[in-house]
Amino acid sequence: MPTYLGMPAFPQAAKSAVGNAQLRRNLTHATTVIRTKRAKAVAELDDWEQLRQTAKAIKDHTLANLGTYLVRLEENVTRAGGHVHWARDAAEANDIVTNLVRQAGADRAVKVKSMATQETGLNEALEAAGITAIETDLAELIVQLGHDRPSHILVPAIHRNRAEIGQLFRVAMADAPAGLTDDPPQLAAAARQHLRNEFLAATVGISGANFAVADTGSLLVVESEGNGRMCVTLPNTLISVVGVEKVLPSWRDLEVFLALLPRSSTAERMNPYTTIWSGVTPGDGPQDFHLVLLDNGRTDTLADATGRQALRCIRCSACLNVCPVYERAGGHAYGSPYPGPIGAILSPQLRGVGSAIDASLPFASSLCGACYEVCPVAINIPEVLVEQRSRSVENHRHFSERAVFAASGYVLRSPRRLALAQRAASLGRHVAGRGGRIRRLPPPLSAWTDTRDAPAPPPESFRAWWARTRGTGK
Ligand code: SF4
């Protein structure tokens, strides 16, 4: 699977997607269907806003006391027979998992869909170590077979339609049945058959977790296909890579999140499969369980008073489905496993703003606020975006921008200089074309006219007109 290294800034990355009519049709269809269903599912609950505010309060309390709850989680996972590992960054997490798979004597592992392991690039790290990771979520399998990248948190292959998937299965799936058509039930049956032998042969399973309960040391995965349950119950060794922000204090807190998450993500009242495990149980399920707790920029994010709210995210993807920018640009342009509005605020915080793509992400939004309205944990994404934009402008003001502001200040400080500048600017109307618009200017002003035109300056300024008609220049 390709990595995100060296991605161009968002406007360049989005260019080809915006020009791809088929992709835009796929995205518009899928996001429209999901957001309409979600709105109906949410409208069924009278206390949705109370649930939302409760979830926000639980998450904020947990994040404010993260150290306490993580230590409690570690104690209880250990007490239940599991092993806890702490990973400062992606490389450390990948090394821990690679060594654990080797210790288990395996060269293959089945995987549950997991954002944390996409974030660390685990599949690539395992591949470099000679270990094959097999994605078992249907959409992730489509992405893996196509050597592609996910473009949506919940529906990673949202950019593919059924004809493209049928073609991919016929070409890339070695055991695809003869005569496989593009019919969705046939495609699902082919994938199920393809994965069945992998599940039965697997000795190592790798998962993430939607939540981790500190009080009991329990981990929880919600999913729709049952592949997750196979991965976390059939292999002898289970390794779960979980971001530190996934911890919740108690079992009771789950009640709130299990009401919010399915309605916000798949528009279901409850998930078809909710699998919960606590350590190991002799003779039942994996006998060797490892929890890898991942920081990878989360502690730094926690230190940011505005940006830390991004850590409340429960990865439901509702913000993607309502975002007009995501709907047109698709997920790949965000250069991260976290696309859409949440990606625009989370990726630059987790990775820093040193790369072109991360520096550009806070600007990949119209600030319409639809993401905030639908977010089940009330993350004020526009607020974080505006804060990040202002920091970016402070840190990356260009030489040309500084020069323009310095020159403007010099001119505006003197009425005489302003009058001279206005007279000079009025000459610009001679380069205006038909309709009184200026369509092309030389660099650096071409940065404006490359994508829009400009009105021709009037023949005289307001001050000149006032002085001419009222007899005073004051
Ligand atoms: S930011 Fe909110 S709406 Fe978006 S994925 Fe996270 S929890 Fe869902």
Question: What structural keywords apply?
Answer:
474 residues; alpha/beta; four-stranded mixed beta sheet; binds iron/sulfur cluster
In short:
The chain is built from 23 helices and twelve strands.
Structure characterization notes:
By secondary structure, this protein is α/β, with parallel strands linked by helices. It is built from 23 helices and twelve strands. The protein has helices at 10-18, 21-43, 48-64, 66-79, 90-103, 115-120, 122-128, 138-145, 162-172, 184-201, 227-233, 251-265, 298-302, 318-321, 324-329, 340-351, 356-360, 370-374, 381-395, 399-412, 415-426, 446-449, 462-470; strands spanning 83-87, 108-111, 132-135, 204-207, 211-213, 218-223, 237-243, 247-248, 273-278, 288-294, 437-438, 454-455. The longest helix has 23 residues, at 21-43. The mean pLDDT is 93. Bound molecules: iron/sulfur cluster (SF4). Residues 264, 313-319, 342, 374-377, 379 line the site of iron/sulfur cluster.
